[in-house]
């Protein structure tokens, strides 16, 4: 969850007091002493039910913010400056947007703050640039695979102690091989892993922000105004049965496309996804390529 509330709002709970602190429900006794656990008596109160429901709403809101910002980044589309300004005061939105590299018109910088004057960015020289919010102004979140001078931006982030909650600057980049044979072999390098239970694979994939179902794990990227979906297939008989990793391929408009037509961003994200899922598996047999 995002930043905890500075002053907790305590609610009476049958001789105890409860409060929501970020993603945790805190409890104290009548004398104000914090308790490590919540007594059964306090758990049976309306206050506990209210805080539990609120916590669930906040968790879902946080996840929606995370997935939306990630979608903006992967889709490469234009986002209104006014929208970023409008959501910035919300802790969850700010958590996932802070310090992302943005590009708007001729201006590029790390999103540091937003106020009534506009969006305040840190430029590559370390100076501050302010983008005024206009009704027509937009921005996008460039992918490091296509960001000129990415090494300099990374160096600036390290030197300034900047940490991005949405992985962007230091996202793994996998350059697409130049020759067709190596390219095809790289896509077939993950069909040698297995999971004891498919549910474990699905949980790992979803926690990382991928779309996962019994027909495969997916990530979709918009590149050159086209949507490309990378799919890592696996073989399974159901969530409680084992799963064997299979082919990695890309599709567009529901049709499998030749690896030569996969763009650099889509390829990088496909390999990043496959590497992550494969890393959680148990190796079985050698891949025969694709």
From TrEMBL:
Task: Provide an example Pfam family for this protein.
Answer: DUF4132
Residues covered by the DUF4132 domain? 32-210
Protein name (Swiss-Prot/TrEMBL) = DUF4132 domain-containing protein
What phylogenetic lineage does the species belong to?
Bacteria, Bacillati, Actinomycetota, Actinomycetes, Mycobacteriales
